[in-house]
Design goal:
Protein name: ATP-binding cassette domain-containing protein
Pfam family, one: ABC_tran
CATH topology: Rossmann fold
Number of domains: 1
Number of helices: 9
CATH architecture: 3-Layer(aba) Sandwich
Oligomer: single chain
Distance between the termini: 37 Å
Strand content: 15-25%
Low-confidence stretches: 242-246
Structural class: alpha/beta
Number of strands: 10
Shape: globular
Radius of gyration: 18 Å
Helix content: 25-40%
Order of helices and strands: EEEHEEHEHHHEHEHEEHH
Largest sheet: 6 strands, mixed
Mean pLDDT: 91
Strand order of the largest sheet: 6-7-8-3-9-10
GO molecular function, one term: ATP binding
Keywords: ATP-binding, Nucleotide-binding, Transport
Bound molecules: adenosine-5'-triphosphate
Length: about 250
């Protein structure tokens, strides 16, 4: 269970997140939507302890994230896979070494076992032959799939996906959403997916939150979001542009 209580974060004295509270129970998948700059990525970084808020509390399975020391935080991050918006691949490592990185960090498997796992996951993301390539030789869609592979290879129980299909063509996007759905159905992960692709996240998430200018303006399940009368919720969910909303 992930519990976010009254998170407030300031940037140059102005609130960029304001009193945000939500809960994600084990195995649930939250879709986080809202305009650019609303604070979605920042909220996820706070939840996994990468950024400290001015106010509020985050607990993951009962552990208060901000009470942890650096070593305990590093342990917590082993439970959390993160697919960052900007890939965050190491340019100086080839694809195989990038994906193997979290397994080597954990230090529990032999090189032979790691090699087999890397090959398995590369096959499952439909890129079986690119282990020796470097990130700068890959297309955006390939980098996303490699980042996905690196985020999920340690089989974390929690995964955060930050705009996993941004800038991808529709075919590659649908492949990514299939991978996300498999994580939910086969591995039962608890997840937060930030996305501007409403059609894509409709199918992989069971709960939805909408952030606007740092405030949580909606939190609810699919039927609640479909019937919400909050104008910005309608605008985002239905994907129309209403000039009156500005
Ligand atoms: N570590 C930080 N501390 C304080 N403020 C931050 C920090 N990181 C980002 N911000 C600010 O938080 C605001 C929200 O940024 P964020 O990237 O979370 O938006 P977003 O909703 O994810 O946008 P997009 O959909 O465009 O990715 C921005 O004004 C940004 O400058």
């Amino acid at each position: 269970m992930i519990k976010v209580e009254n998170i407030t974060k300031l940037h140059m004295g102005e609130p960029v997140l304001q009193d945000v509270s939500l809960e994600i129970r084990e195995g649930a998948n939250l879709g986080l939507i809202g305009p650019g700059g609303a604070g979605k990525s920042l909220l996820v970084k706070i939840i996994c302890g990468l950024v400290r808020p001015e106010k509020g509390r985050v607990t993951i399975d009962g552990t208060d994230v901000f009470s942890l020391n650096e070593i305990e935080l590093a342990d917590l991050r082993f439970k959390i896979g993160m697919l960052f918006q900007n890939y965050a691949l190491f340019d100086f490592m080839n694809v195989g070494d990038n994906i193997a990185f979290p397994l080597r960090q954990a230090g529990k498997l032999t090189e032979e076992e790691i090699g087999a796992k890397v090959q398995d996951i590369l096959t499952s993301v439909d890129l079986p032959t690119i282990a020796a390539k470097y990130p700068n030789e890959l297309s955006g869609g390939m980098k996303k799939r490699v980042s996905f592979a690196r985020a999920v290879i340690p089989q974390p129980p929690i995964v955060f996906y930050d705009d996993p299909t941004a800038g991808l063509d529709p075919v590659t996007s649908s492949k990514i959403f299939i991978l996300l759905r498999e994580m939910r159905d086969k591995r039962g992960v608890t997840s937060i997916t930030i996305s501007h692709d409403i059609e894509g996240i409709k199918d992989i998430c069971d709960n939805f939150a909408l952030l606007d200018k740092g405030k949580l303006v909606f939190l609810g399940d699919r039927s609640q979001i479909e019937t919400s009368e909050i104008p910005i919720v309608r605008q985002f969910w239905d994907g129309f542009s209403d000039d009156e909303l500005g």
